[in-house]
Design a protein that fits this description.
Helix content: 10-25%
Oligomer: single chain
CATH topology: TolA/TonB C-terminal domain
Number of domains: 1
Strand content: 25-35%
Number of helices: 3
């Protein structure tokens, strides 16, 4: 149960937006929150992770492109977003996603 609570850590910003001209915003049908390790929180290791999810027309995440962030936090973000499901679209899209890992948040 504690692991589930820590996985629901502070995600202050999850941004799914238009990344290229002519694309419409794709909504997320199902999300998995990144697991924020209690050890990282205890050591006050946090920060912002920016990635781009390359989403197939069917809505599954094909791959993740890292834009920036602490590598240990990037791994948690990648593992979560690869499990996300987006609404279908006619073409592949690139969806930017930003997570903020905040060690000061005690949720």
């Amino acid at each position: 149960m504690h692991a589930r609570n820590t996985s629901l850590f502070l995600v202050t910003t999850v941004l799914v937006a238009v990344f290229a001209c002519g694309q419409t915003e794709r909504k997320v049908i199902s999300k998995v929150a990144p697991v924020y390790s209690p050890l990282l929180k205890q050591k006050m290791i946090g920060g912002v992770v920016r990635i781009v999810a390359v989403v197939s027309p069917s809505g599954t995440v094909q791959r993740i492109e890292v834009v920036g962030g602490n590598p240990i936090l990037v791994t948690a973000a990648q593992e979560a977003v690869t499990k996300w499901k987006f609404t279908p679209a006619e073409t592949e899209t690139r969806e930017p996603v930003t997570f903020t890992f905040d060690p000061a948040n005690h949720h």
